[in-house]
Design a protein that fits this description.
about 40% helix; about 180 residues
């Protein structure tokens, strides 16, 4: 069994508070990959970076003082290009920090057991993609973990590349 995980493809990371040209550039390849995954019959989950009105009081808010992905705002929503393809709340995993400790259990739930392969793609490569990939690798050491680099973008091209290299060192396959 295989699962595809879309990481934080939300309005605030693409065109909103933390959007940048790199994240905008992965929208089209991500949409194409999601269409392929759906056609293959692969299970899909997606994460939503989720913050609240008290964001500026949190550790993340103090270190990154840019309110983003506040629940109930347009910035928290999945981008429109993906909404029509995968907007199924039962497939959403809200997370309040970079990596989701609930994600491994959700993977088991949708796969009906330990998957053979997990593919991740999304933003930001150097923060949330790497965090979730490492959590999944630790939880599923014998599962092939893949990060689709052409469907990922980081805070900068340099940090994106560094994150991909770090994941390779941890036996995560980067394509």
């Amino acid at each position: 069994m295989k699962v595809f995980i879309v990481i934080d493809m939300q309005n605030d990371f693409i065109s909103g508070a933390l959007g940048n040209p790199e994240t905008l550039a992965v929208v089209e390849p991500m949409v194409e990959r999601v269409k392929e995954v759906i056609a293959e019959g692969t299970e899909i989950l997606y994460t939503l970076d989720t913050h609240f009105e008290n964001y500026s009081d949190t550790q993340e808010g103090k270190n990154l003082p840019v309110p983003h992905c506040i629940k109930g705002t347009e910035g928290h929503n999945l981008i429109p290009e993906l909404m029509s393809l995968i907007n199924d709340e039962s497939r959403a995993v809200e997370k309040i920090i970079f990596g989701s400790k609930e994600l491994p259990q959700r993977v088991i739930d949708v796969c009906g057991g330990i998957p053979d392969e997990i593919e991740l793609a999304g933003v930001c490569t150097d923060i949330c993609v790497i965090s979730n990939a490492m959590i999944l690798k630790a939880f599923f050491p014998e599962t092939k973990i893949i990060v689709n680099g052409r469907c990922c973008a980081g805070v900068s091209p340099e940090s994106h590349s560094r994150a991909l290299e770090a994941m390779k060192m941890c036996q995560i396959t980067v394509i």
